[in-house]
């Protein structure tokens, strides 16, 4: 007689308070498999940076854009404002044009705003302001600009070394 025993391995159960709506979208294209992909996640409350990063890892897209309606809204119903954050699979980024453009396209395409709304204002965690406009059948975006300043010499040397390591030396 052969005796066997079986012990199941522990199962990890993660309880989430609720599901959040999301869309996988591509900016700069009308081809569903072209352009720059991004996951667009619509939040109704703040989540921790750690949670947002883990969600981004799960999507495994070049960019995940998190959208949260702002407390400040246009009373004339001509624009809507959102807080926005962008994450790759490894870190939060300061700004992402294609992620914002994709988010605006999804908001307009899925009628997440009244048809009278033609402008979407996005405010990043660092205070940067991005504006998207619906123009005919396309979406335009205005990105913030900053003055370019030279790097300190030690920082420039570090960047040069990193570029050489990644792209090879140029002779």
UniProtKB/TrEMBL annotation:
Keywords: Isomerase. It comes from the Eukaryota. Pfam families: PhzC-PhzF (PF02567). InterPro entries: Phenazine_PhzF-like. PANTHER family: PHENAZINE BIOSYNTHESIS PROTEIN (PTHR13774), PHENAZINE BIOSYNTHESIS-LIKE DOMAIN-CONTAINING PROTEIN (PTHR13774:SF17). Belongs to the PhzF family. This is Uncharacterized protein.
């Amino acid at each position: 007689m052969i005796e066997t025993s079986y012990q199941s391995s522990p199962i990890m159960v993660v309880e989430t308070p609720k599901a959040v709506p999301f869309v996988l979208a591509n900016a700069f294209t009308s081809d569903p498999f072209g352009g720059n992909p991004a996951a667009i996640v619509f939040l109704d409350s703040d989540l921790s940076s750690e949670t947002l990063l883990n969600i981004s890892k799960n999507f495994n897209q070049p960019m995940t854009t998190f959208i949260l309606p702002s407390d400040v809204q246009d009373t004339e119903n001509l624009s809507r404002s959102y807080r926005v954050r962008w994450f790759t699979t490894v870190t939060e980024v300061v700004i992402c044009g294609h992620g914002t453009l994709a988010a605006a396209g999804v908001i307009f395409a899925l009628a997440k705003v009244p048809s009278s709304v033609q402008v979407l204002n996005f405010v990043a965690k660092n205070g940067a302001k991005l504006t998207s406009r619906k123009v005919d059948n396309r979406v335009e975006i205005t990105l913030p600009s900053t003055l370019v300043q030279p790097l300190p010499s030690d920082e420039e040397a570090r960047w040069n070394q990193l570029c050489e390591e990644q792209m090879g030396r140029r002779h």
